[in-house]
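Lab manual, section 2.4: Encoding a predicted structure.

Procedure: take the sequence of the chain (236 residues), apply the prediction step described in section 2.3, and record the output as structure tokens. A sample record is shown.
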Amino acid sequence: MNRFLYLIILISLSTNVYSQQLIGKVVNELKQPLGNVLITAKSINDGLLQYTASNRDGDFSISNLNNSIYEIAAKSIGYVTFTDTITVNGNINTGEIVLKQKTIELDGITVVSEIPAIKNINDGVIVNAGNSYFKSLPLVTDVLAQIPEISIDNGVISVLGKKNIGYYVNGKQTNFNLANISVASIDKIELITTPSAKYDADMEAVINIVLKKNAEQVLMAKYRRNTDKTLNHNMI
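Recorded output:
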């Protein structure tokens, strides 16, 4: 076979293997489009994770998928996560993915959760945490676990598979134990998935917890009390 023709065929086959596309649309139970829904596709073969977010019309697409079995998920705060397993050997159209709104227990009464406001920024998302949906959660880690990009496995927090995370409170880097932060004191959570050069080079993601007015003073007082207790214990 002509070597040039063989090369063209080889390139064509390679392109076809890695050019598959996953497309679809995310809607709620009223068939209304849902934007800002995190769509992930994780290859079972090599663990490679690819992701995107649905647009304001609920449409999404993930390109450059290889021939593999994928675990796909659609995640959005206040909705039950959709999961499925698909085999990719060509372009895939999921059709409409319907997300069901979560229900929560408040004072023994089951109510439909209030959907918190999510704002996309260039390098991540901002989540408004000051509503009844988050107030019903006991721990800050429970709040973080609601953010689609964040996963918690055996206490280890990761952001889109990245585990080298910088933690900030009101824009200041901190080593506070997250358990010391009251959920009721949180105003919003800023998640930066692609940190800029102003952050340490080894930080793969940044979580900035913005507290409500005067809440930082309460947190610092609690931190000082805990520090004093530790020092006194060590001196005994």
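Check your result against the sample. Residues 3-98 form a domain with the Immunoglobulin-like fold (CATH 2.60.40.10).
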